[in-house]
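Hello support,

Our group uses your service weekly, and this is the first time we've seen a run hang past the timeout. The protein is Complex III subunit II. I'm not sure whether the cause is the sequence or the server load. Input pasted verbatim:
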Amino acid sequence: MYRAAASSFRRHLKGHGSKLGSTRSSTSAAVAARTSKGGLFSWLTGERSSSLPSLDIPLGGVVLPDPLPDSVEQSKTKITTLSNGLKIASETSPNPAASIGLYLDCGSIYETPFSSGASHLLERMAFKSTTNRSHFRIVREVEAIGGNIGASASREQMGYTFDALKTYVPQMVELLVDCVRNPAFLDWEVNEELRKVKAELGELSNNPQGLLLEAIHSAGYSGALAYPLLAPEAALNRLDGPSLEEFVAENYTAPRMVLAAAGVEHEELVSIAEPLLSDLPNVPRPDEPKSVYVGGDFRRHGESGGTHVALAFEVPGGWHKEKDAIVLTVLQMLMGGGGSFSAGGPGKGMHSRLYLRVLNEYQQIQSFSAFNSIFNNTGLFGIYASTSPDFAPKAVDIAAKELIAIASPGQVTQVQLDRAKKSTKSAVLMNLESRMIASEDIGRQILTYGERKPLEQFLKAVDEITLNDITKISQKIISSPLTMASYGDVLSVPSYESVNRKFHAK
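Update from on-call engineer: The timeout came from a worker crash unrelated to the input. Re-ran successfully.
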């Protein structure tokens, strides 16, 4: 339409060119040249306005900024240790927002039979009423600055986080410290959260993978790591405000805490946090409770409409055996897997071994994926499968064959390894672009290692992984006792002994 209109205008102008030329004077032409703005008429006719400067000529009075550098040096993590042993760590960022977290060397492994479930309940009690603020006031203060708060509990560590604009760093730190140091544990709030936790336990059957992950730990370990993160209802009935206060007093001590931040100047963070945290008791850090991997079997019948099975083995050394932990991370990426149906469309992980060799070949399998659960001194690695009951024996057999295959020289190709290494580096680098993940990484690494390992060190370690490293770590893993867990229609699941013989044939 617009192109046709422009052609018609051009023909009209050509036919009347002489009349226009005879009436136009030099003065009027000069005025027109100065006042013409172009606009719709010039756009339609394709004529170039004589008043517009050439794009090749820089505009006068405009100062161009310096070009961005080709590369920017990554911000270094700075660490300050207070006199009571508490560590404050941070890295700067050009982002307008900041993420701050208080991380503790405390989790379900430090629980006793009388405090079982305390870590899970404390996660739910995070940012409830303190001795200085009501829960309502805490919510309103967070909302007033557009912040986000959260808490997480695991077997070895806990974390409380606050994310908001940098302008509000003093308010963020003060509120975060108040909620961690001064919880009120009001009876009605504790009872309300206990009801919610019990409701979660009742709905655990809707999450078979989460249920089996819990079962793998209770069946595979003897000692602290066998303690449930999601305590049974009988244990929760013993918890109340005073028992939570006792657990916090014993475990929330200065040497076991790290205040970590991403996007905050270190000197500013220390000046704000030190007066709030320097009086925490300097109680000597206790030895980590012992855990011994023994292997075992767990089976529970459930009305899930399918069969869910997990096979797992020990990863000796855990995070403290850094090279093996990094090789294991790449191995999990190499194995991959996922669900037979992807809500986000095809393409996610479709080049991984388990996707190509299992999910693409067996329509009876709904989910098939590698998993790991690594702790300070030990860990678990295995395969989780979800299938129809009649296909369960075959699915277990396939899982065993895949684990044995990666431990056999020549079964993994260099192309597969290179792809897994690139995917691992890409995932880590993209995750660390999030200030919340960066803050968490700082806190958890300092709790584990006492420092934050340079990112370049991790990337270099990934690049140095060879096919032989993959074979060796796989052989080491499957040489440990088997841990097996199943849920749903378990009648057709092969016996523990028959599966164990596949890995440890005499």
